[in-house]
Amino acid sequence: MSDIIAPQAQPAGKGLKSNHLGFFEVVSQSIGVIAPSGTPGLVIPVVFATAGNGTWLAYVFATVALLIVSLQINVFSSRIASPGSLYVYTGHGLGRFAGVISGWALLIGYVFTAAAVINGTVSTGLAVLQDFGFHTNTQAVLIGFSILAAAAALALGWRDIKLSVRTTLIFEFSTLALILLTVFIWFIHHGSVVDKAQTSLQGVNPTTLRLGLVLAFFSFVGFESATVLGVESQQPRRFIPRAVLASVAISGLVFVIAAYGLTFAFHGNATTLDQSNAPLTVAAQAFGFAPIGLVISAGVALSFFTCILASINAAARVLYTLSHNGLFHARAQSTHGKHGSPHIALSVVSLLAIGLSVGLSLGHWALLDAYGILGSLATYGFLVSYGLVTLAAPVYLLRRGELKPLHLLTAVVAFALLLVAVVGTVYPVPAWPYNVLPYIFLGLLLIGFLYFLALRIIAPARLAAVEAEILGQA
Fold first, then answer.
1. Helix (H, G, I), strand (E, B), or coil: what is residue 233?
2. Residue 233 backbone phi and psi in degrees, to 5
3. Long-range interactions of 125-128: CB distance < 8 A, separation 24+
4. What's the rounded Cα separation, in Å, for the pair 466 and 474?
5. Fewer Cβ neighbours under 10 Å: the N or C end of the chain?
6. Is 457 exposed, middle or buried (0-12, 13-18, 19+ CB in 10 A)?
């Protein structure tokens, strides 16, 4: 226990490489966790199943909503540079207890995202290999590929954050360019971009649109992860706020275009969009260039891999900060002597992620079913952390004497929109196993809460020092 609660002499972030990453590399961290190139093939069809011809509008609303949430995060990111991300931000506004809960929820979000996209990487990767005649998908093969993907991500994260984000930059943006190219060529081939069924919202009603909006929110989780680079960014108070907004805007634009284009492309098809396993390939086949679908599928697999990388990088930096503050074992605040990476924290979160992924495989869950379960649990973590930082923003500004009516208005709107997303995950009550996931998440959150209470008894002086240190990072 002494290793967990012992005070630390160095400020958080001391061993990380400072002044190391440029703007595009900072943006790539957030884009990497969002993994927007995976959404057209996996998430948009699910949103379409609910929102139908209003799918594009659901993404417009989700983009605007999360841009408003981004403004709350940027209240802090424009003033505070810390690898602790929303954990530190919430602590500044609402105190150490809310900060710890926010940090724990965010850590859950990143770790479960990493676990989910391990499954996504294996699923999409095997689909590509099947096109080349590789059809083996035994449990041993699935587990082997899962471990290999996680190990490769860990190796890159351990080696250098710049190498990690540049890998994300290349794979993700190349695939996004191909996706948009496919949609635009389909429009040209079709001869029109006007789909009256969508522009008139045919068959759409407020209930289906609301449920579609909830699902569309899930496509963006992790957009704030650039904030973990508060120490490693060259100009954190300038680059990070811009990166948070840019990641939502870029991803939202792609999602709206892809949702509109794919919905249009599937009108009249025997197989509807929500029943298609490869909607972009179908769109490419329509104008006689099916090979581009294979290239996109390979790009999506690589995109999921970079999401593993971005997620463990983000989780490790939150864990690194929690460790420095005495809320985890002291070894997790170690940084690699040569590479400057939080290598112990990276190893811990990677092992947790692969354990969750492989555990569900051993439980005979299909890859995409496991992806949905793990991703849903991750989303709860993000929503809790976003909600807390949204509440913290106006309180923080009030204490600084900077609160204006517009700040309060945007915070209220942001919190209301997040509340819509939370309620939408539990009502109407989803089918099993999704109906029990909120309780599993609350159990995980309770672990962090009880640990905090235990530290209040065992080491109250240390927690007071944590609060003083957090408030000193502005």
1. strand
2. -75, 150
3. 125/149, 125/301, 125/304, 125/305, 127/278, 127/297, 127/301, 128/294, 128/297, 128/298, 128/301
4. 14
5. N
6. exposed
The dihedral region occupied by 305, where left means phi > 0, alpha psi between -120 and 50, and beta the remainder, is alpha
CA 240 to CA 264: how far, in whole Å? Answer: 36
Q: What is the pTM of this model?
A: 0.91
Calpha distance 124→117 (Å, rounded): 10
> What is the gyration radius of the CA atoms in the chain, in angstroms?
22
260: its two tokens: 């509109």
Determine the Cα–Cα distance for residues 225 and 372; give it in Å rounded to an integer: 21
User: Which tokens go with 430?
Assistant: 């989803």
Q: Nearest CA to 142 among 299, 325, 339, 369?
A: 369
The two structure tokens encoding residue 103: 């940090």
Tokens read off for 115? 């676990």
Cα–Cα–Cα angle for 114, 119, 122, nearest 5°?
Answer: 120
Task: Quote the CA–CA distance of 165 and 313 in Å, as a whole number.
Answer: 9
Please tell me the total count of domains within the chain.
Answer: 1
Cα–Cα distance, 303 to 296 (Å, whole number): 10
pLDDT of the chain, 474 residues: tens digit per residue: 333 333 333 445 556 778 778 999 999 999 999 999 999 988 999 999 999 999 999 999 999 999 999 999 999 999 998 888 899 999 999 988 899 899 999 999 999 999 999 999 999 898 888 877 777 778 899 999 999 999 999 999 888 778 888 888 898 999 999 999 999 999 999 999 999 999 999 999 988 888 888 889 989 999 999 999 988 999 999 999 999 999 999 999 999 999 999 999 999 888 899 988 788 888 888 888 778 878 888 888 998 999 999 999 999 999 998 887 777 777 877 776 665 688 899 999 999 999 999 999 999 999 989 999 999 999 999 999 999 999 999 999 999 999 999 999 999 999 999 998 888 888 888 889 999 999 999 999 999 888 888 877 887 776 676 666 655 555
**CA separation for the pair 30, 77 (Å, rounded):** 14
Task: Report which secondary-structure segment, H or E, holds 317.
Answer: helix 291-324
Q: Which range marks the domain in which residue 232 is found?
A: 2-471
CATH number of 254's domain: 1.20.1740.10
